[in-house]
Structure formats: structure tokens, C-alpha cells
Amino acid sequence: MKNKHVNAIVVGAGAGGGIVAKELAVAGLSVVLFERGGWATYDDHNDDELISQRTTVLGNAFGPDDKRHRRVVVNSDGSTRIVLPSEGSYSNNAACVGSGTVSYGAMAWRFMEKDFTMKSTYGHVEGSTLDDWPINYFDLEPYYEKAEWEIGVSGESGANPFESHREKPYPMPPFAYNHSANILADAAKRLGYSPFPIPMLRNSVRYGGRPACYRMRSCVGFACPVNAKCGTHNTVIPTALDSGNCELRTHCQVAEIMLDEKGRATGVKYFDEKDKGQIQTADIVVVSAAAVETARLLLNSKSKLFPNGAGNNNDWVGRNLQGHAYTGAHGLMNDDVYDDVGPGATLAIADFNHDNPGIVGGGVLCNEFTAMPYLFSKMRPPGAKRWGPEHKEYQRSQFKKLIRLHGPFQEIPNFEARVTVDSEVKDHWGIPVARLSGSRHPYDPTGCQYMSERAEEILKEAGAYHTWQRVGGRGLSGGQHQAGTTRMGNDPKISVTNKFGQVHEIDNLFIADGSLCVTNGGFNPALTIMALGYWVGDYIVKNWNGSKFK
């Protein structure tokens, strides 16, 4: 049976797509929301660390599966290799309703004002595509607020002395520090820094009809057993479905955006849960599949007017791939600092996010999420044995004595860090796969080194008798915080969409995920992606008149 025509298709039921689907549906538009995975629950995998954390791929337990999905990575010497979702270099995002919001750490950061004006603030960086956003913090502030209150964020307004203006406080109080956070907070204050509680997309009290978090250690990489972690799967997507205007189609792989002879989007081709090819037509298409898959879908959507892919006549689709270079330091304490109070990360220090002498940008340092035993086995000082009796003794004696400060450093975007599609390798459905190439900007290790030095300084002040740095900023970026591949901008020659996520030259095709980010900030981007979802959705609702945009 032929699918009924709808007002809007949304591809991807994650942080951005779930919100756009809800905004359009409650405004009365008919919506089909596509998700390549299904509904995920804690009982699917409980807290089996060997399933969820044996690789660096957060959320891999929730797909996609290795049998049907693959990507190609170009090595630094030009050779290539095929990688699977269970491998770190795949740059995986969870494939399920809610996507990464099911299994993420749930830090809820607003980007800072300077994050939107990086080029104006720091000037041109040689070899980079560093630029200002076409919108500023105050444009997005009401949408940050909406995300905090509709999805649910716990935090303490004003606790971060560097935060930008906000009209409303957080809807829930912050989580109390755990033991390591108390130790680090005191040390940071002695050094003149300003620690504060991390804002979290997690219920600190009952909120939205769901219970408070009971602070289990196995949180990151897992679904929440009591539904206290706040994501699109348990907030806006149910609201969209309850409106009666949104149909969610799970286990569907979207292959192509269909474009007519005038260059407008008419719908999508996709494979349903039985691997049968289908067509869904719509007035509007919104792509929210995360930076790698969003770029892949546009590049695989070719037509006479767009022979190189939808919106790619200026060769910017897939360019400027960014994630976050995680950086920091480890330390060993004489006494136990581990107290089994999850999720572990409760304290942040944002003194280094901007205004560092000689450094472009910066980032935030946090005490880390609980490292369960398998992951802990990888956290060794330089030269330490990784097998045998010494390894086992370290595992037993140091598990509760390890203390960490890490965080994301804002990467410098560059044109050659990119997503293309491979001409030979295809997935289970015969769709050309994403091909990842390039590397981070050469500057990134310099900024990461600065951050790691600050982290080690604080650990030593806290009493760590043995410390070592973990300096990020090397290799190809991407990962959970992937961004930038369809960046927004005012000039179609150096951007893919306008400031509302509307693809240049295709007025009924929109992007609503981290792909829009011109730069990726010095914080986890989840809340910014949610705010962008509200921003794009609001524009569509206000400017669609039923047949075209005003």
C-alpha cells in the first residue's frame, strides 16, 4: 500500500530530530519520524559492561549492528580500512529512539557567547575554517531555556561565574558532589579557580512524571533503569506521538532524499523493517541523523541540479567534521576517593573555556564518570604493566584511589576533516557508506596540552602522589560529539544552510542536529543540539503556510 503524503519527514529520532518532530506535530503538521533503530530499555542490556563499554564507543550496545553497517576510514598514509560500529574509529552514535540521549552522560551545557564568535574573538587561524556563527548566544537563549524546562535539567544558576545571561533558573536543583568532587573542589578553590556542580539532563528530584535519579554507577553507556535520565525518548517524542499527528517508523534505513526537476525535496526513499524499499512523500524534509550520517544522506541524494549531492554544489557538505579532543590528567591518591555514588561526574571547572593566554578557545574540566572495572583496566600510568600479576594487583589496589579531571577542548575546524561517500563499499541495503578522512587541525594538541597541565596542577593540589597527563587533539575527529558537516552561514559559498538550518537552494530541506554547528564549543553539545532543534522547528512552524515558506 502506498504511504500517505505528509507535511513533514524527520530523519533521525535523536536530540534534534525528536524535538523537531514534536514541535511540528503539536503545531498541527502531519509528521513521519524515521529511526534506524528501535525502542531501547535498560533490560535490553542492563549494566553489562562487556557489551556497553568494551570499546570507546558510548552507546554501542544500542546499535547500529556490525552485520549491516560499516564505514571506511582513510589512514594518514592514504590507505583505507573498513570499520564497524563496535570500533572506536567508526565514530558511532546510538541507533535507537532517542539515540545518544538514551545512553549519554547527560551533561547539559549552554555554549558561551564567545563560542558563537570564535573568528571575531581570536582572528584567523592558519589552515582552518574558523568562523563566526550566523546567530549569537542571545538568539538561542530562549531555546536553551525551552530545552532545559521541557526535557529537564538539574543545575545551579549562577554557580558558574563564567556562564552567559539566562532568563530563568534551572527547573531542578543540582546534584550534590560525590567524594572526589569535594576533594577537587577544595583544591581548585585553593588555586583560585571556581568549581561548580555540572548541569545535568537528569532528574535530581521527581520531574515530568518520572522519578529522581538514584545515582547508580553504571550510567554512561547504559539506559536508565528508573527512567530518570532525560532524553527525547521519554519527553518530546511521546508528546509528538500523543498529538495524533506524528507516526514513528522504527528499524527504517533512509537511503535518499528525493529531489524534483526544480530542485525541491519531495520525500525520501527508505528500507522498512523487512528490508523492503519504500517511498514516503512530504512537503518538508528535516534531516537529523548526526554529522556523519546527515552528510552521507545528502551526498547520496543526487539529481540533475545537484549532481554532487543535495545542497553540495559548493562542495561544503561533509566538510569541517569536528568532535571534541578530550584531554586532562589522572592521579593516584593515598586514600580511597571512590564512593560508588554515580554517575561519578558532578564537578566542573570552566575557568579555562576562554581567555587563556596564547590559547584559541578552551574547554571545561570535570571529575569523570565512574570507570567500571573493564574500562579502569585501560587507565594506567605510562610504563605500567597491562597484563600479569602486576596488572592484577594494580586493578585490585588502585581502583578506589584513582582520581581524574578531563574534559572537551574546542577543536579548530578545518576543510579537509570530512565525510564523503565511498565509491565501492556499500552497506547491507546497497547504499554507499560514509568515508571519513583528514585529521584534526595541528593546533589542537597545543590547546589540549594547556588544559591537561591545568588538570594535573589541580590533582597535585588535591593530594595525588602520582599524576600523568592524557593529552588529546590527535587523529581524525568525530565520535559522540560529531558536528560541523553542514554548517550554517549567511554565504552559500562557504556554508550548507542558512541560519535557520534551511539548505541553501532547497528551501524545503532542513538540517537539525550538530551538523549545523560552525564551531563545537568547549562543552558537550547535547543541549545545544536540542536548542537548535527548537530553533529550526520554530522557524518551520512560523513560516510554513501549507504550501511554501513565507
CATH architecture: 3-Layer(bba) Sandwich
Low-confidence stretches: none
Number of E-type strands: 17
For the termini, the CA-CA separation is 34 Å
Radius of gyration: 22 Å
CATH topology: FAD/NAD(P)-binding domain
Any idea of the CATH class? Answer: Alpha Beta
The biggest beta sheet is recorded as:
7 strands, mixed
Number of domains: 1
Portion of residues within helices: 10-25%
Basic shape: globular
List the helices and strands and how they pair.
Blueprint: E1 6-11, H1 17-26, E2 31-34, H2 42-45, H3 49-52, E3 71-74, E4 80-83, H4 118-122, H5 137-152, H6 179-190, E5 195-197, H7 236-242, E6 246-249, E7 253-259, E8 265-271, E9 277-287, H8 290-299, E10 325-332, E11 347-349, E12 365-367, H9 373-376, H10 388-398, E13 402-409, E14 418-426, E15 432-437, H11 444-462, E16 466-470, E17 509-511, H12 526-543
Parallel strand pairs: 1-2, 1-9, 2-6, 3-15, 9-17
Antiparallel strand pairs: 3-4, 5-11, 7-8, 8-9, 10-13, 10-16, 11-12, 12-13, 14-15
Helix pairs in contact: 1-7, 1-12, 5-12, 6-11
In short:
By secondary structure, the chain is of the alpha/beta class. The chain has 12 helices and 17 strands. It has helices at residues 17-26, 42-45, 49-52, 118-122, 137-152, 179-190, 236-242, 290-299, 373-376, 388-398, 444-462, 526-543, and strands at residues 6-11, 31-34, 71-74, 80-83, 195-197, 246-249, 253-259, 265-271, 277-287, 325-332, 347-349, 365-367, 402-409, 418-426, 432-437, 466-470, 509-511.
